[in-house]
Design brief:
By secondary structure, the chain is α+β, with helices and mostly antiparallel strands. Helix content is about 50%, strand content about 15%. The protein is built from twelve helices and ten strands. The radius of gyration is 21 Å and the shape is globular.
Length: about 400
């Protein structure tokens, strides 16, 4: 076991951290307050090769390992959850799914421009009446000749107004339940497609989130991802990648909470000494540090399994559950450390607390992950082999 980052990974972390400090930190309070998603950040991330950091070079990516994606997500969420979410959706949920399940033609047409950052991808699974219960989705795709007619609605979709391509899940045979769901690559410009942003969110206000609408959208049959009826399996595999990035981002949020709290501990004095000298404040700082270190171990273990081309649903679920809970607690403690000032947007910790709630809910609530982990231990849940695995990272160690 090697717990050290490679020189390349260390350089990557420094690059993203410097980017966040320069391009996000000075502006994020205003963006959050005004509900602005600055799309120029995506272009700047693309210029740095970060929109396809773990996608092989042959498909337009940077060719780094899957833990490099975790590092990018950590550092971006240190700036704000909105920008980590954008990379999670674009790379983790969409591009990596096409890499795993797509035909060569689909990879050339959609994956290559996405990995280069020329196009942006998003993910459409959740519906008004279908969240954790995926089988309750109502969107349908009816085969007519050489295309499908897509009708339905998706909600809580990140990058709803800004993405170019969407990975959309719909029933092609309702009678088969889970086995009747299929996955499609849908383009924004197609007739019958529309989107609408959601306002009034508790957190991640600097992100673009909302609804998708499909009104008799004609989807060419070559845009079916995988086979008919494989949609549920593809969705769950996609969530393995999305949850991995969410867990990594949670580590970044804990980092942000720690940095803000430590700085305030040295600035603020009560009873004649820095508040960091008070033991109950130290307890909160210690919990943040413990949460960060434990979360990172879980995240990078899952990433290493991805590097080796192994199933990691169980490990990724545990990392997502625990890291997001630790981040939520760290944000709550960070507000407490700041006292009354933590309740004001004069300091960033109130934003951290608001942002920390969503990851505890999306991509599997903490309750869903709790059940999953118990079922693994009890032997009720066993991961079956997939007919298409996420490609292993082709470095010299893996190839040997």
């Amino acid at each position: 076991m090697n717990f050290e980052h490679s020189e390349e990974q260390t350089m990557l972390r420094n690059t993203v951290r410097n980017f966040v400090d320069k391009e996000i930190m000075p502006y994020i309070a205003d963006w959050d307050r005004e509900g602005i998603f600055d799309t120029s950040i995506m272009k700047k991330l693309a210029d740095l090769g970060l929109m396809g950091v773990c996608i092989p070079e042959e498909y337009g990516g940077s060719g780094m390992d899957y833990n490099a994606l975790a590092i990018v997500c950590e550092e971006l969420e240190r700036g704000d959850t909105a920008f980590r979410t954008a990379v999670s959706v674009h790379t983790g949920l969409n591009s990596m799914s096409i890499l795993q399940w797509g035909t060569e033609e689909q990879k050339q047409k959609y994956l290559v421009p996405q990995a280069k950052g020329e196009k942006v991808g998003a993910f459409g699974l959740t519906e008004p009446a279908a969240g954790s219960d995926v089988a309750s989705l109502q969107t349908s795709a009816v085969k007519e000749g050489d295309h499908y007619i897509l009708n339905g609605q998706k909600t809580w979709i990140s990058l709803c107004d800004t993405a170019d391509h969407f990975l959309v899940f719909a029933y092609t045979d309702k009678a088969k339940k889970h086995h009747g769901i299929s996955a499609f690559i849908v383009e924004r410009t197609w007739e019958g497609f529309s989107s609408k942003a959601t306002k009034g969110k508790l957190g991640i206000r600097a992100g673009n989130t909302g609804e998708l609408f499909f009104d008799n959208v004609k989807v060419p049959e070559e845009n079916l991802l995988g086979e008919e009826g494989e949609g549920f399996k593809i969705a769950m595999a996609s969530l393995d990648n999305g949850r991995f990035t969410v867990a990594a981002g949670a580590c970044g949020q804990i980092m942000a909470c720690l940095e803000a709290s430590v700085n305030y501990c040295h600035e603020r004095e009560t009873f004649g000494k820095e508040i960091g000298r008070h033991q109950l404040v130290q307890q909160m700082i210690a919990k943040m540090e413990a949460g960060l270190q434990m979360s990172r171990l879980l995240v990078y273990r899952a990433g290493e399994l991805k590097n080796q081309g192994k199933r990691n649903t169980r490990e990724t679920s545990l990392a997502k559950w625990q890291a997001c809970d630790f981040a939520n607690q760290a944000a709550d403690d960070a507000v407490q450390v700041h006292g009354a000032y933590g309740y004001s947007d004069e300091y960033p910790v109130e934003r951290y607390l608001r942002n920390s709630k969503a990851p505890v809910i999306y991509e599997g609530t903490r309750e869903i992950h709790t059940i999953m982990q118990a079922e693994y231990v009890l032997g009720y849940r066993v991961d079956k082999p997939l007919n298409k695995m996420l490609p292993a990272w082709e470095n010299e160690l893996v190839s040997k």
